[in-house]
Amino acid sequence: MPNILIHPQDEPFLISPQALRRLLDRGDADAALLYLALLRHQGALSPRSLTKELRWDPERMDAAETVLRELELVASDPGDEREPVQQDYRQDEIAFQLENNPEFLQLTAQVESRLGKRLSPLDLSRLLGLMNELDLPSDVIYTLVNHCVERYAARHGAGQRPKMAYIERTGARWYQMGIHTQAAAAEYLKRYARQQAHYAEYMRVLELGDRLPVGLEEKYLAAWHEMGFPPEAVALAYEKTVLNCREFKWSYCNGILKRWDRDGLHTPEEIEKDEQAGKKKPGKRHKTNEDEIGKYVRQLQKKMEKERDST
Fold first, then answer.
1. Could you tell me if residue 35 is inside a domain?
2. Which of 60, 127, 213, 235 is the right S-S partner for 217, CB 3.0 to 4.6 Å?
3. Whole-model pTM?
């Protein structure tokens, strides 16, 4: 397999100053982490194959991978619409399957009805790849198609339908996540629905209304959900953010929640109890720049007084 990283073959896999600068300028933590994971595997794995290793959901992985492609730090995704993920079947092979494989013929009719269009030869090749190359049962594939149609419409508007390339990429992620049966698909969709419900609750406590989160916003929400924060805890972080920043800032709010997660604080009760304990506990005040400046001024004043007395 060729290296997915755009990196000279004769150089060691160390992060280059150019790559480092691009990542720092972009300021996307997930993209940087994904790039480091790719470096660890010497570029021999595609980004989506690291979903389990990074313990990310497909949407978070897709967002980080998109950033790396935009920064030209990884080659174009093999699952991009310009190139099929799976084997590109010839038209005579597709015709043979349609004539001799009733299951594939029925699935094709179902998918065409769901997408509201006739599948092209390339679309049929992608569909056949999901069945043959990934060995996904037809009922799982149809469940996948329905999920993709609903998710795409929710993000892009009612009546908008995904392309087969989108469905194929999602199917490849399902396969890598171990979703090979109808039972596994049903369990995943339950988790996905719960996650989306949490996103909606997060958006409301952040006073962002009922709209769907956009790419970077969804990455933050996914991280908070993975950390285990209920909406009430996010509401507390929101209040602190607005109080300190005079406006809502995603990065600042995320910093608060990451600190709480690091300290093992997730519920409002745990957070408030810790803050009350902190107020009662005498702590050593950290020196600030103002302290140092004040100290310097006092020393200077004493020196001037001594000189004045000596004269």
1. yes
2. 213
3. 0.53
Residue 87 CA to residue 78 CA, distance in Å, equals 11
Residue 80 CB coordination number (10 Å): 13
Give pLDDT tens digits for 122-162: 999 999 999 998 889 999 999 999 999 998 888 778 888 99
Among 149, 180, 211, the domain boundary falls at: 180
CA distance 129 to 210: 38
Domain range for 54:
17-70
Report helix, strand or coil for 88.
Answer: coil
Q: Is a pLDDT exceeding 60 seen at residue 67?
A: yes
Answer for the pair 96, 62: CB distance below 8 angstroms, yes or no: no
CATH number of the domain to which 213 belongs: 1.10.10
Dmax over CA atoms of the chain, in Å, equals 112
Contact 50, 34 (CB under 8 A): yes
- Separation CA 262–CA 256 (nearest Å): 10
| Residues 182-200: tens digit of each pLDDT | 999 999 999 888 888 888 8
DSSP 267: S
Looking at the 3D structure of the chain, how many domains does it have? 3
The two three-digit tokens of residue 17, written as one number:
């100053």
